[in-house]
Fold this protein.
Amino acid sequence: MRTSSSTPKPAALAAAFLLSAAGFAFAQGPQQQPLRMVQLKPNVYAGLDGGGGNSTIVIGNTGVIVVDAKTSEMSGKALVDEIAKITPKPITTVIETHSDGDHINGLAGFPKDVKVIANEGDKKEQEAAIAAGGRGAPPADRLPSLVTTKQKETMTLDGVKFELYHWAPAHTSGDLVVYLPDQKICATGDVVMANMADDNPLIHPEKNGSTAGWITNVKGIVGLNADTYVPGHGDLLKKADVQRKLDATSAKRDRIVAAIKAGKTLDEIKAEFPNPPPAAGAGRGPAPGGAPPAGGPGGPAAAGPGAAAGRGPGGGGRGPQPTFAELVYNEVTKK
């Protein structure tokens, strides 16, 4: 399946990248959490927190492959420095799970000659944001150099087997799920976030994300023979955790669709299916079981694809982020 041919609006994407680059604090909670390096396998580590989305570090025969690069030049450089403490091998490749700034803008702190792999929708979103200009746009000299276009692409990078999946637009139009079959590890990007309520995934409508596509993607993710999942934000997950999120979100979406077919209005549906309220003590971002704080992904000040970089075009006079119920309503009624 190829990504949606719809092109994101440049102005919306520019605002989205600005929001995430300026304050990825939404995903980190009131105070940024330090970078934590967790060894998953002899040659695989997770770089959790530390300024932006989670990263996965894979040590190959002669070099290092990194999945997602943090949110800024400073946090990207901090990750590079931590990797250097683990291995003297150089970073040769970065794989992007999507175009949100809190996952890619840290490339500014990486070696200039790294190869960047991403889905075609991801690259289009970055190009649109760069064309719109403004602070917070992704690094123009670090655009993806290798683009995936198929539902599944298998490649061996420096002796390590990778499977890259794009089942449908979900969090954004260019999501890429990264699976290491030999290690049974899956990096989900923001399609799965440990610090969001089980039935309230973050969808970026201005990046052509989709609630139906989210379910398609997570069914694919659960179907992988993985033991450990590195989510876009929050702590590591097991298959049962991801299955629980899929079940809760599928059931909620089915109820919303039934309400639409029963003739209920959007206002009635939004009242019946509100987003979960913010939870107290959201240490690393939206606390489990709660919605993200205002201004964070999906929060009132966030705009869009979470808005893009982590969050969506927000601010600048833009209204609240659509609730999950509103997104489903718009999809079903083609609003």
